[in-house]
Amino acid sequence: MAKIIWTSEAERWITEIYDYIALDNPVAAKKVVRGIYDRVQILSQFPEIGYRFEESSRNVRILLYGHYRIAYLVSESRDCSILGVFHGSLDIVRHIKI
């Protein structure tokens, strides 16, 4: 099984997503964040399930969850480092170094 590592940057994105949604609906905010964490768990068994992010020369992949894109890096040992969680309208290249 692949190990899942949340970077501090990815954790910051999750906090910002929660805070933004919670302004209107704290229950929905918890549901969205829980859904993102649950979705990421599939990477422990299938680390390459996301599509390859072509703008990167490294093995960066994108996993979809609702309106969000979860960017992660697959290492040679197949462990997955979560780089960030982005709303689909955002340009990932502008927000993370890949």
Low-confidence stretches: none
Give the helix level as a range of percent: 25-40%
Strand order of the largest sheet: 1-5-4-3-2
Q: Order of helices and strands, N to C?
A: EHHEEEEH
- Ends apart, CA distance between termini: 24 Å
Secondary structure tally, helices: 3
CATH topology name, in short, is YaeB-like fold
Can you tell me the CATH superfamily?
Answer: RelE-like
Task: Please explain how this structure is put together.
The chain is an alpha+beta fold and 98 residues long. It has one domain (4-95): 2-Layer Sandwich (YaeB-like fold), CATH 3.30.2310.20. The chain has 3 helices and 5 strands. It has helices at 8-22, 26-40, 92-95, and strands spanning 4-6, 51-52, 60-65, 68-74, 80-87. It has a 5-stranded mixed beta sheet. A hairpin with a 7-residue loop joins β2 (51-52) and β3 (60-65). The chain is globular.
